[in-house]
From TrEMBL:
Its EC number is 2.1.1.171. Pfam families: Cons_hypoth95. Coiled coil: none annotated. CDD domains: AdoMet_MTases (cd02440). InterPro entries: DNA_methylase_N6_adenine_CS (IPR002052), RNA_MeTrfase_RsmD (IPR004398), SAM-dependent_MTases_sf (IPR029063). SUPFAM superfamilies: S-adenosyl-L-methionine-dependent methyltransferases (SSF53335). This is 16S rRNA (Guanine(966)-N(2))-methyltransferase RsmD. The keyword Transferase applies. It comes from Enterocloster citroniae. The keyword Glycoprotein does not apply. Keywords: Methyltransferase, Transferase. Gene3D superfamilies: Vaccinia Virus protein VP39. GO terms for molecular function: 16S rRNA (guanine(966)-N(2))-methyltransferase activity; nucleic acid binding.
Length: 185
């Protein structure tokens, strides 16, 4: 796995050993960031269920002003920190070692306003729904915040409207998909 573009282009990233994380493939990451590129410059990026940190690091490499990465696996946190050091992007990153919802609660009141929220939760557990329910009432996101959820192809998102979101688009790959959502109508 590597950084696709930007200031850390071509640098190899360490991944977490074992089956606890599913690193986003370089091809999928490239497709995702090609779609996000017009909005990534100077944005504030929130990377939830960060794994190796590859998504947040890609955002930083491509010009995001800052990235907050929340992950609860200590081995993954070590991997994120090593990858940030390797890419020399640690000065624009905040890494939090905790459960995602606990991390979001810790961030409240710190004047963060995120332009993009990316999450790649474990599939089939409904974590994306809990996170979006929490963020629906958070001051950390605005009407312009873009939410990107990586999920299995089978995951349904017909509940988005129940929490005040709408689907912008969905991009399907062989085994998973990226769902882009916004707040409001």
């Amino acid at each position: 796995m590597r950084v696709i573009a930007g200031s850390a282009r071509r640098l190899l990233l360490k991944t977490v050993e074992g089956m606890d994380t599913r690193p986003t493939t370089d091809r999928t990451k490239e497709t995702l960031f090609n779609m996000l590129q017009p909005q990534i410059g100077d944005c504030k990026f929130l990377d939830l269920f960060s794994g190796s940190g590859a998504i947040g690091i890609e955002a930083l490499s491509r010009g995001a002003a800052m990235a907050v990465m929340i992950e609860n696996n200590p081995k993954a946190i070590e991997c994120i920190r090593e990858n940030l050091e390797r890419t020399k992007l640690e000065d624009r990153a905040l890494v939090m070692n905790c459960d995602v919802l606990a991390g979001l609660k810790k961030l409240e009141g710190r004047n963060y306003k995120f332009d993009m929220v990316f999450m790649d939760p474990p599939y089939g557990h409904g974590h994306e729904r809990l996170v979006l329910e929490y963020l629906a009432h958070s001051a950390m996101v605005t009407e312009d915040t873009v939410f990107i959820i990586e999920a299995s192809r089978e995951t349904e998102f017909d509940w988005l409207k129940d929490y005040g979101y709408h689907m912008i688009k969905s991009k399907e790959y062989k085994t998973n998909k990226h769902v882009f959502a916004g707040r409001g109508e």
